[in-house]
Amino acid sequence: MYAFIAILFLFHFFPLRCVITLTKLVVRADDAPSPELGSTSVLSYMSTPRENFNS
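Structure (tokenized):
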């Protein structure tokens, strides 16, 4: 739950691309299966349909 609030907090101060790269780094660094990481990875995929196609 705290991870979800932290991401919403970051969206107000950092551009979308910066937040997405941060979440991807966190998900890669922490491979431990937890509901917070699951929600962040889903959020990063849902919020970047265009960037996934570009890369």
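The CA atoms of residues 23 and 40 lie 7 Å apart. The chain has a mean pLDDT of 63.
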